[in-house]
Amino acid sequence: MVAISKIATGNGHGENSPYFDGWKAYEANPFHPTDRPDGVIQMGLAENQLCFSLIKKWVMQHPEASLCSAEGVDRFKETALFQDYHGMPEFRQAVAKFMGKVRGDRVKFDPDRIVMSGGATGAHEMVAFCLADPGEAFLVPTPYYPGFDRDLRWRTGVQLVPVVCESWNNFKITRNALEAAYEKATKANLRVKGLLITNPSNPLGTVLDRDTLRSVVKFIDEKNIHLIGDEIYAATVFMEPEFVSISEIIEEVECNRDLIHIVYSLSKDMGFPGFRVGIVYSYNDAVVSCARKMSSFGLVSSQTQHLIASMLSNDEFVDSFIAESKDQLSKRHKYFTWNLSQVGIGSLKSNAGLFIWMDLRKLLKEKTFDAEMDLWRVIINEVKLNVSPGSSFHCNEPGWFRVCFANMDDHTMEVALSRIRTFMLKHNEAMVPRKLCRRSSLKLSFSRRRDDLMSPSIMSPHSPIPQSPLVRART
Amino acid sequence: MAAMSKIATGNGHGENSPYFDGWKAYETDPFHPIDRPDGVIQMGLAENQLCFDFIKKWLIKHPEASVSTAQGVNKFKEMALFQDYHGMPEFRRAVAKFMGKVRGDRVKFDPDRIVMSGGATGAHETLAFCLADPGEAFLVPTPYYPGFDRDLKWRTGVELVPVHCESSNNFKITRDALEAAYVKAQEANLRVKGLLITNPSNPLGTILDRDTLKNVVGFINEKNIHLIGDEIYAATVFMEPEFVSISEIIEEDDVECNRDLIHIVYSLSKDMGFPGFRVGIVYSYNDAVVSCARKMSSFGLVSSQTQHLIASMLSDDDFVDDFIAESKNLLFKRHKYFTRSLSQVGIGSLKSNAGLFIWMDLRRLLREKTFEAEMELWRVIINEVKLNVSPGSSFHCHEPGWFRVCFANMDDNTMAVALSRIRTFVLKNNEAMVPPRKLCRLSSLKLSLSRRMDDLMSPSILSPHSPLPQSPLVRARN
Predict the structure, then answer these.
(1) CA distance B238 to B334
(2) ipTM for the whole complex
(3) Phi, psi of B453 (to 5 degrees)
(4) Is A87 on the interface with B (CB under 8 A)?
(5) Contact A5 B224 (CB under 8 A)
(6) CA B380 to CA B386: how far, in whole Å?
(7) A381 by DSSP, 3-state: which?
(8) Catalytic residues of B
(9) Taking a C-beta distance cutoff of 8 angstroms, is the pair B217, B250 a contact?
(10) Are the beta carbons of A238 and A205 closer than 8 angstroms?
């Protein structure tokens, strides 16, 4: 018997979670408009596919951005040899400028604080290694991105303690919830080293309001613990209210800046997850220095640094891209949520991200996570959509699902919506008698032509849970 | 006070080692033929700069290799979105094929065992995380690459125990040395989980002979510990004897070995000269390790843009065959020129046939046989001779007086400048040297040095000197 490490034989990689079962179903039978029209549609992957035409146009107009074109090849050698963990100055300058523009130029980022990492995945792990010892803990508001369990804990030995947020107040991060989590950690003999917030939120698609941000900064400052702000979705804020970054708040409130760190990446805002452009931005010099040394384990390919430097230093392109991306996301979001509301499906009101937080609580046979998993299997196997169940995001309440909308073309979106409609129709028919009135009018609606259904002037909004203020159907 | 981790506040990053002082000297005053002709010449960086014209020619002919050219842009979106940690199939196939060709097609590599990492730096750390728990240990023959101290230990908590190799037998890895290290580890209550060998060797520039390899495999198999073979310099073997890879040894009939113990670290940083592209590879014969390393590769995947470029380049058989041959040829020439010129001034080095550096023997220039004396000599070399070379102590060499000097990271002109500085230094040093009994040789040396530089280069004129006549290991070149 050959011994390998505990890390290797354990489950810290997180892939035994149900979150991955949907993936497997998708991979076994992926949707394709012509080859596999009945395949599973991927709505579990938060990708931004809406802006590639714009990007492609720019790429074609700028051959010098490539090291392999006639215009760029003279820089091939220099770039291929460049392995300095400080990163190319032009790359850091371009990324810092982009980060500023994404925040409406309300703050400036210092290129010398830009540290590279192997995607945001590597950035999170790196920050954990810098800030906490094995056995120490970070607080994380729920629901949160499942990858954190692996990125922050697996090889570091750091623990995560949930800050439980609830649907009754739109999953706001309250002072009480923070204190409760802190206390719970302390009781469990876990030394809390920091708080990790994702803003805009994955999976909620919402932004933190100014008061909450100040409250959070005040909390960490008082407790003298670090604040890690994952702002990976910063440029996906497609609607009011405006995004407020941690980088802005610390200019307004009193706070020890040595506690403030931002994780960023181009994977969501630009749609470049394959390029592995992760960024750690810290206001703490010692952390910058340490992270930079650690970046050797996950530097950004110099070929990619060169491309990104070219692209993001082009102000016109960046300004157009940011505006276009918001516009496309806004349209797609509106279309998707409005159509869902037409069939009685609501979601948390959101203005950012590449997904919605869908409310299917009324479809659960009972208010349990088992029922949520049952419903999820139905959605995957019958409706043939891979969506992500709320439990995989550590949501404390069953019935919520994250559904991505920006990773497909218009046609696929149509197919997905028609499958949802069919499913809801069947479901409503199977529903209990007291809903008969609404059901008749619903049936009536469905007998109309699809075009009519789309028209905002005809349908009145439904709220799937009339008693809850949080879910709002779209007109 | 904002508390950080112990890992962050400690010295595990290794940058406080003297190895980095030479870097700092270079960075403040780097040589440039026109702007800074008196600057420090970088001979401490093992880079392969000799083949770029060749590569550039291929690139110009193959614009489709890039997703950012007109010819390749239709694949841009697909590449930009591709983040599957299995890696692109075409990338894995091309790398597997390349690895095979570098070994003369004597073995085949399975594309499904190719796992990506953040350079070889990331590959080593990943394997340490996969194979050992904090506090457990790997054995590493000395002298070894200083980066291992950081890559294998820093964030993993794994320990390294040196296997001492000695100049008396050309730093061979002996069974005795392996056993001694193993025992030492046990005495220190360290559980040994594996042995890490670098073949071809950094800093020695030599390759392990077949017997040593079999010996090593026999040892790890008996002890049931892992064998990690860092073969990052595989394509830099420019001369006989031929490179023998671990992948070949385990196929031999008379070698019994549990393949679950065998792992190879690879990269394109040295063989191709692409350190900036961060193409690290973990190749394991152990399925559980492949699976775990693949999951860990999320922390250091190769940029899909780069995967695409490499896939195009390395699947072009003609290019690969020509590149491998051309690279060997240029390395051979440069190595020969460098070592011969050094021998002309009485500087010898370990006889080597691989790598991007030589293991220079300056033992006789030490004021005394200590590492302090080595550091003093090193400071002289940096500050007076203005060359950044790497002192043997930074490689954990057991014996003072050895220096690793890189020769493939500069153009011909810079090489000539470096050599002339060395000549000047040796001349000054010989004038200042002690023992009368060396006087004869000294006179003849003076005589030789007064000849024109061109004559010095000519192989027909000078007879070889051995700086240490008593030691068989250092051989000046003809």
Answers:
(1) 10
(2) 0.90
(3) -55, -40
(4) no
(5) no
(6) 8
(7) helix
(8) 145, 230, 232, 270
(9) yes
(10) no
